[in-house]
Amino acid sequence: MFREGSLITLEMYNVKSTTTKFAPVLFGSQNERFIPEPLRGHTRYLLNSETSYTKLYAFLTGQAGVTPGERESLKTLARNPVEPLRFESSKEHDRFDF
């Protein structure tokens, strides 16, 4: 199991944790302790009912999730005018003393 966990960690690091390549599938809740660390925060599938199987099938076939609705146009917010930040202009202030 150590080797599989290392491969999963490496793959998730390489794709910046956005992979859907791995999904914990369990046949009993007592097996949750064997889920590798990098996958513990991901959705897991406990195959103990037809509903659970359907959810796994939807995930594996790219049909999981929700269909996004139409996006409304963004409204423009009013901005308060402000004075720009100004600094004194002199040779003395242009020098950095650390």
Strand and helix map with partners:
Layout: H1 2-14, E1 25-26, E2 45-46, H2 50-60, H3 91-94
Parallel strand pairs: 1-2
Summarize the structure.
With 98 residues, the chain is mainly α. The chain has helices at residues 2-14, 50-60, 91-94; strands spanning 25-26, 45-46.
Question: What do you see in this structure?
Answer:
By secondary structure, the protein is mostly helical. The protein has a domain at 2-60. It is built from 3 helices and 2 strands. The protein has helices at 2-14, 50-60, 91-94, and strands spanning 25-26, 45-46. Strands 1-2 form a two-stranded parallel ribbon. The protein starts with a helix and ends with a helix. The mean pLDDT is 79.
Number of continuous helical runs: 3
* Low-confidence sequence ranges: none
Q: What gross morphology would you assign? A: elongated
Evaluate the radius of gyration.
26 Å
| Helix-strand sequence | HEEHH
- Which structural class do the helices and strands define? mainly alpha
Assess the beta-strand content as a share of residues.
under 5%
Q: Cα distance, first to last residue?
A: 53 Å
Specify the helix fraction band: 25-40%
Main sheet attributes: strand count, strand direction, barrel closure: 2 strands, parallel
Mean pLDDT: 79
Give the strand order of the largest sheet, numbering strands 1, 2, ... along the chain.
1-2
The counted number of beta strands is 2
